[in-house]
Amino acid sequence: MGFEDLAWLFRCDHRNRGILRLDFDEAAVLWRAVRATRGDILEIGRLLGGSTVLLAEASREGPDRAPGGLGSGRRIVSLDIAPRHRPECEAYFAREGVRERLDLRIANAHLPIASDERFGMCFIDGDHSYEGVRADTCAHWDRIDTGDGLVVFHDAIPNDGLDFKNDGTLAHAPGVLRWCEELLATGCAEEVERGGSMLCVRKTRELPAALVEEAIAVWRE
Ligand SMILES: C[S@@+](CC[C@H](N)C(=O)[O-])C[C@H]1O[C@@H](n2cnc3c(N)ncnc32)[C@H](O)[C@@H]1O
């Protein structure tokens, strides 16, 4: 068991957020997904750079890292249309052993990346509208490994992570929830775990070509 498996010991809510825009239990889901997969990592939405740091650290090679999937050279491709990196993150990104593995792009994630890159894991935390997260998923789904590739969605699951004011507020983005329910209903993904508003799914097969085309066509114009 790792530290990330002890999130249930903590009270996790929005007060956990700093440079990394995740609650502690949500960060634990993301960390576990990295550790459970192999191959390169795709991130959609990095904002201040906090989640990119977490992805890079979770995929770092070293004697303190579990064997299998955490070998050397695990790259992270990160897409963001308007990032605002914090100086602390810039300093981390410049470290030896990190900078060689990072590919930080300024790009609209609603459109497929112009390459034949493949990924073992994807973190989606960009545009939280239904149309936006659907396009993000469809544009990159065929790049994710089938069978053991994991995709993690933030703000998908209604939870009490905002409820520290005791006003019954549930934290999630309705458009992300709607899309994740549709995605699971296609049978192209199956649920692995959830924590806070995070939903981690395993890719089981490709999405129908017509669905992919419909989802991204509008963003090509
Ligand atoms: C919630 S923030 C990401 C927070 C970050 N993942 C973290 O946990 O620290 C969402 C980010 O998505 C980016 N974004 C929104 N729409 C986008 C799009 N169409 N393509 C790429 N990035 C987008 C925004 O610029 C913003 O930086």
CATH topology: Rossmann fold
Structural class: alpha/beta
| CATH architecture heading | 3-Layer(aba) Sandwich
Task: Describe the sheet with the most strands.
Answer: 7 strands, mixed
Spatial order of the strands in the main sheet?
A: 3-2-1-4-5-7-6
- CA radius of gyration is 17 Å
Beta-strand proportion: 15-25%
> How many beta-strand runs?
7
Given this structure, which CATH class is correct?
Alpha Beta
What's the number of domains? 1
Kindly, what is the distance between the CA atoms of the first and last residues, rounded to a whole number of angstroms? 48 Å
**Poorly predicted segments:** 63-71
> Could you tell me which ligands this complex binds, including any ions or cofactors?
S-adenosylmethionine
Mind telling me the CATH superfamily name?
Vaccinia Virus protein VP39
| Mean pLDDT value | 91
The H/E string reads: HEHEHEEHEHEEH
Measured as a percent range, the helix fraction is 25-40%
Q: If helices are DSSP runs of H or I spanning 4 or more residues, what is the number of helices?
A: 6
The dominant shape is globular
Task: Describe the 3D structure.
There is one protein chain. With 221 residues, this protein is of the alpha/beta class. It is globular and about 45 Å long. The longest helix is centred in the C-terminal third of the chain and has 13 residues, at 174-186. The model is unreliable at 63-71 (pLDDT under 50). The chain has a seven-stranded mixed beta sheet with strand order 3-2-1-4-5-7-6, with helices on both faces. The protein has one domain (3-220): Rossmann fold, CATH 3.40.50.150. It has helices at residues 24-35, 50-58, 87-93, 130-140, 174-186, 209-220; strands at residues 41-44, 76-80, 102-106, 121-124, 150-153, 189-195, 198-203. Helix 4 (130-140) packs across helix 5 and helix 4 (130-140) crosses helix 6. The structure holds S-adenosylmethionine (SAM). Residues 20-22, 45-48, 50-51, 79-83, 108-110, 125-127 line the site of S-adenosylmethionine (SAM).
